[in-house]
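Researcher: We're teaching a course module on how sequence relates to structure. For the next exercise, students receive a sequence and then see the predicted structure as tokens, so they can try to spot secondary structure elements on their own. Here is the exercise chain.
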Amino acid sequence: MPRSPRDLVEIEAYAHATEDPDRVKAAIENILPERFKGNVVYIREKLEGHYGNPIIIYRVNVENASEEFLLSLLERMSWEDKVSLRRNLDRHIGRHKILYLRFDKQEAYLGRLRAGYSDPICVRLKLKPHVFKKLPSLLEPEGG
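Model: And here is the predicted structure for the students to work with:
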């Protein structure tokens, strides 16, 4: 079984029957740092909901860029979202020291990066150990 990379970003979002799939892809694109926009492969999986409604899952995987992704996300997050993340950091870290973040899909479509928990765009960052260690300091307010 192949080993998973030590540095990986996974992005996942659902396009429900009531949503335009192209807009969901555009929302994901707005989460990406500039150098990755238009340069990622979207994995598309079609599912059927409980009542037969179509659901499309979009996934994007990027290797060897988690620190760049993290810094880009933190730079664009609101002060309030960073404070919340800092206060609740233990809730955002899963097994194998993966950082889990969720962003509002509608806000992302509009070009704004806001935390969101209802039907979000999910971002998982598998950080290198040295980046993971400095995560708390990256969330500190500017100037201490």
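Model: If you want an answer key for the exercise: The radius of gyration is 15 Å. Residues 31 and 61 are 13 Å apart (CA to CA).
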